[in-house]
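Q: Sequence in, structure out?
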Amino acid sequence: MKLKQLAIASTLALVSITAFADHGSTCGKGKFDKTTWQEHRAEHFQKHQERLHTVLQLTAAQENAWNTYQSQIKPKDKAERPDVAALEKLNTVQRLDKMEALDKERDAEHAQRSKAIRTFYAQLNDSQKKVFDENAFPHPHHGRPGHDHGGPQHDKPHHDKPQS
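A: Exactly. Output:
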């Protein structure tokens, strides 16, 4: 009898482990596809901006500022990572110079986006600023299990979630 129970328990454990190990293969999560990543990223950005535009309830006078803001913050296509083979041909100092140049480029882009955000934010009234604060940027743990969200809620603006 104990042998039969042990066999059943082992089978259940094996099935459970297999189910968890295969998690994601049917839903598409956990699979990185370089060919569609940029497209997915741009699509997600666009949807997020459309939701933000809706919840901000901009006046006609603010629409021009919104359009300027959008043109300035639109993500650029990410450049490919530095060519590893080319980097390996460089000596340490040359590699450092290359990486510092890339850092300066990234920092300049970040400064431009920050300026655009500050300029647009100044055009908002107090209630719009509150909505912007709650919705403009993804939360650090947004959509990660175990971080008070219980899963992604990308279809709703953040301020519409019930307060608990």
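The radius of gyration is 24 Å.
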